[in-house]
Amino acid sequence: MTAEVYSNNVSFTYDHANEPAVINTMLSIPNGQCVVLCGASGCGKTTYSRIVNGLIPQFFHGGFNGEQHTCGIDTAAEPIDKLTPLVGSVFQNPKTQYFNAKVIDELAFPAENMGLPPEDINHRIMETAQRFDIESLLDRSIFHL
User: Fold this and answer.
1) How far is it, in rounded angstroms, from Cα 53 to Cα 68?
2) Helix (H) or strand (E) holding 10
3) Helix H or strand E segment including 39
4) pLDDT tens across 120-129, in order?
5) Would you state the torsion angle of the CA atoms of residues 3, 128, 124, 60, taken in this order, to the nearest 10 degrees?
6) How far apart are CA 99 and CA 81, in angstroms?
7) Which residues pair with 68 in a beta bridge?
8) How far apart are CA 44 and CA 49, in angstroms?
9) What is the model's pTM?
10) Residue 129 near residue 121, CB atoms below 8 Å
11) What's the Cα-to-Cα distance from 95 to each of 99, 106, 144, rounded to whole Å?
12) What is the pLDDT of residues 31-66, one digit of tens each?
């Protein structure tokens, strides 16, 4: 399989939902290709992105069928932490994207989520801040940037 995202007859129905949110989705996205998911509200875009990044079926529960591989990983069979360094989501509203109020805490979040030791987290924060020349912003609120 050469696709970075490979969906074979993927369907999902949330617990307590009357109808599936995604039905028999087939998609193969090769490495380096950019794809935009667009459509009306409620058509399944968010649900499909949750399937691709492994949140479904591991975090959001319901009836999952089909085969989903992302970056060569079977998202239903492998622990979600294998996907964490490889896949993420960007939300439509930037204010809902953040988990922390301070820049430094937001930069630490992905590394903390992967369970890295504190010294590695601090090193990554400083490396990133230097790379983007934002050392002066580390103690600022993300809402006041």
Assistant:
1) 10
2) strand 3-14
3) none
4) 999 999 999 9
5) -50
6) 18
7) 7
8) 9
9) 0.71
10) no
11) 9, 12, 12
12) 889 888 889 988 999 999 999 999 999 889 999 999
